[in-house]
Every structure is written in C-alpha cells, then in structure tokens.
Amino acid sequence: MRTTVKGKNLDVLDSDRRYAEQKMQRLSRLLDDRSEVIVEFSVEHNKSADQTHIAELTLLLDGKPVRGVARAATFRAAIDVAVDKVEELTVEHKERPRTRARSDQAKEIQRSMAVGPTESEDHDGHRLVVKVKRFAIQPMFEEDAVAQMEELGHSFFLFVNAENERVALLYRRRDGDYGMIEPTIGGAYTPGRK
Q: What span, in angstroms and rounded, lies between the C-alpha atoms of 139 and 165?
C-alpha cells in the first residue's frame, strides 16, 4: 500500500508524516499492494482550539473513494480518529455481501410482475430525485479544484472559488481540457474567458 502525506498550505513535520505512515499500516491488512491512501493535513483557525487541526484520508476501494475526515487539537489526534473512520468503512465494504447477477428469466418474471411506475418515476412518468448528497465545501483555487477532481476520479467538481468567493462547477470536456461554470443569480448571461 502506497501512502502519500501532504499538507494543504502548510509544511508537514517529519514526525507527523512518520506517525501518519505508521497509522496507515493498520489499513494495509485490509488492502492490497496496489492501493493508495492520501493523507492531507490542514489547519482551520476559525474553529475552537481543540478542533483546528484537520486530517483527511482518501483511498480508492474497488474504484470507489472512501474518505475519513477528523478535527482535533493535534494532527496525531486527528489522524487517529480519521483512521478509525476509514477502517470501519473499509471493513463494512469488505463484509457487504456481493449481489449475484440474476438470470434473464428471473429478470423477465420480475418485469412482468411489476405494476405501475418504476422506483425512480412518479405516477405521471416523470423522473424523481432519489438521492440528495450534502457535503462541506471550502474555498479553493482553480488549480486545487482540478487536483481534487483528478484525485477523486470524477468528471466534475463543485467548489467555492477562493478568488471571487463564488460557487463554481469544474468539469472535464470531451477534448480533455477543463471547463468551469460560474452561476450568477438574476444576472444576464456573460461569455466566459477564453
């Protein structure tokens, strides 16, 4: 398992880096050699003194990101809590029973028995919102948003632009470059920068 330890706008002390790498060994028994864990430390000064140090762990498990974030008075205390969270999520994922693919005949029987709209449609045949995802969002620069999006393996990323403190949506274009949508409330359409 490969571990990357980095700081967000700060230099990580060697002792904290070694401690984080040591704690990641707890996860190595659950993961294979191809796995990569990214540990990111940051400091948030506007919180109470016992929650200023933030440790964020991200790993890909079967192609899905698993994240654990913890706040504490020190990076070591935060990393302990974050590792516990990620370990719990990893064990839960590994123990989850795998669903077996149903045979075509069983699927056909289910289709013939189904009455009314599908789960994701209402009675008029319109699609419904079936999932709402809420997450903490922090201001960052475009370059950081690109790096975060690539790190997560997503094709889009919603963030608050640190330059103008506005919500922006970064997305990957078909040509491989990136595009950004910056919504305005009640304003007229303005062409983007080239």
A: 7
